[in-house]
Specification:
Blueprint: H1 2-13, E1 39-49, E2 58-66, H2 80-83, E3 89-97, E4 104-117, E5 125-137, E6 155-166, E7 171-181, E8 192-202
Antiparallel strand pairs: 1-2, 1-8, 2-3, 3-4, 4-5, 5-6, 6-7, 7-8
């Protein structure tokens, strides 16, 4: 599953050149542009928990993205193809399982760019996000239960990608895939994968 996630990331990144201006159509991402100059976007939705594996149920999701810590003046003159790589946003979120299986909170960085603009109407676009960070879960370290994962610890890495339709600079809808594991730092490392749909609102 990790290979699949990185495959999605690389395939989407390869399409970036079709975007004429990397930031057009996106929520405000620089300091002073979002709500109170701090908050950039909120996202909420649901996900299929531990797809095709042991644990069950759906996850209820919530996430807030803060404006990029990188000042706009440092990236304005960069070519659009590379600019998005230097303006990540900090994210903070949670995934609550509806059937009592593993839930988690997470934090990290999100990189966002437009793959295409004016797709169905002027001002819309196809957005790509890559995110990386860590998570804190309430799951099992090691277990013999047939419907629970042996995660190896409560602190895990979290990585994934997201494809979305940016309706306008405020609203978006997207499909994402994420993976959580300890990257082999513990003997038990079954990991968790989630596939979900969420709505974004730029602040």
């Amino acid at each position: 599953m990790r290979c699949a996630i990185f495959g999605v990331v690389l395939a989407a990144a390869a399409l970036v050149p079709v975007s004429g201006r990397a930031e057009d159509g996106l929520p405000r991402i620089h300091a002073g542009e979002g709500l109170a100059g701090i908050f950039s976007e909120v996202r909420f939705g649901g996900a299929w928990h531990d797809i095709g594996a042991k644990e069950r149920g759906a996850n209820v999701l919530g996430e807030v993205l803060f404006v990029s810590p990188v000042p706009a003046r440092l990236t304005t003159d960069m070519p659009p193809l590379y600019r998005w790589m230097f303006q990540p946003r900090v994210h903070l979120g949670f995934a609550a399982n509806t059937e009592g299986y593993t839930s988690y909170g997470y934090a990290g960085l999100t990189w966002t760019t437009m793959l295409a603009r004016d797709v169905f109407r002027r001002g819309d676009g196809i957005r790509f996000d890559f995110f990386f960070g860590g998570s804190l879960n309430n799951g099992k370290h090691v277990t013999n239960e047939l419907d629970r994962k042996s995660l190896g610890g409560n602190l895990l890495f979290r990585v994934g990608g997201e494809i979305g339709y940016q309706i306008d600079p405020r609203w978006s809808v997207s499909l994402f895939l994420d993976h959580e594991s300890n990257a082999g730092s513990a003997r038990a490392n079954e990991g968790l994968n989630s596939l979900g749909l969420r709505i974004g609102f730029g602040l």
